[in-house]
Amino acid sequence: MYRRSILKGFNLSEMTPLCRRLTCNFEMQNPVLLKNLAFSLYTKYHGGFTQKWGCNVKVIPYSVWCTKQRMSQTYRCSGSLSDKSKALVKKSTITVPPSSSKSSLPDALQNEGSQTISDKEPTRLSRISERLVNKCPGHVQPYLKLMRMDRPIGTWLLYWPCGWSIAMGAPAGCFPNIEMLSLFAIGAFVMRGAGCTINDLWDRDIDKKVARTQDRPLVNGSITPFDAVIFLMGQLGVGLLVLLQLNTYCVVLGASSLGLVVAYPLMKRVTYWPQLILGLTFNWGALLGWASLYGSMDLSVCLPLYLAGTCWTIFYDTIYAHQDKVDDVLLGIKSTAIRFGNDTKLWLTGFGTSMICGLVLSGMSCGIGWPYYASVAAVATHLASQVYKLDINNPSDCANKFISNHQVGLILFLGIVFGMLNKSDKSDKEENNMEESSQLKS
Asked: Left (φ > 0), alpha (ψ -120 to 50) or beta: where does 188 sit?
């Protein structure tokens, strides 16, 4: 019954080629493949429509389908506006047919009998960055989308470890170096775009088979691989110019991270821990920011901060990877989302705790003031809230939780800034005590 419901209840032309082939060839007695296929279709139609319109998706018995028109009863699009906020609302309804045995559908749809699950939630309107990209000339837009200028969250996540390190290296009672913050902001924007270009060059064959990535420029043909390589060379050239503005120690340290940038896209093919490699790459700025100020690293401060940032990256990118886990399983792609499975929340708790411990250790080594520890407590609360409310089987919820990690970086940065301003009184007292003790000894 489920097989016929899936085959007749969904339009095969809307599936990816791999899903269509598996749908037509799988055996009726293969519950694992049936579950993956049903979940893939559920997640595709649950969150795969445009942000301007919602959708109603129904999985119905074959006998019911035969009495109704196929397209009008199987799935339809509808949008509605709330009266006050004018926020677009998405509504999804899943009707599961009765069965004499336990259902092999996903966990969210495993109850026996006919049921309806309604999910009504606000759908976020287009971001300012998306509107800016869409207003650019048509021949420029594909390149801006290739470097993800319309999705700036990655730039922020790359920039915050740099900002933490620069702010933590500021003198007691002083604001962080604005020139360095600006220089690293440019570098984060350019290098994040370069990393996305490298990733899309490696994964363009895979992106064709994943619903969420089928509109990327290298997949839809708006940019050729050769043009992407030329564009990548330009991005790396700008990144090199930014790096050359720093001291020699920083130039060597920054150039040594390029291997991680190139290797990361390959890791998802060989290990279930590509998020670890991404963490080591994305948080390199925690080492580079301090070195840009002093020409060397204080490992007692920088190393715990770097490891804390790495744990944070594993935390948020595991949540991000849950959006594509069904497609990844079918394509043989590895990730921590697949590795952790139903134990994801337990693992996330462990990495979140490790991040907080690293931040506390780094702050103690730096002698920072109490506002920093207040911000660390706020970050811990934010991470705990993410874990508690996370629904790993809801791609929209995973995307929202991932984006909210920008707030984590901002909270911690402000805590470091005010913590260093508060550090002045304590440092002056310590210096005076040391001077008095040295005079007494003499």
From this structure: alpha
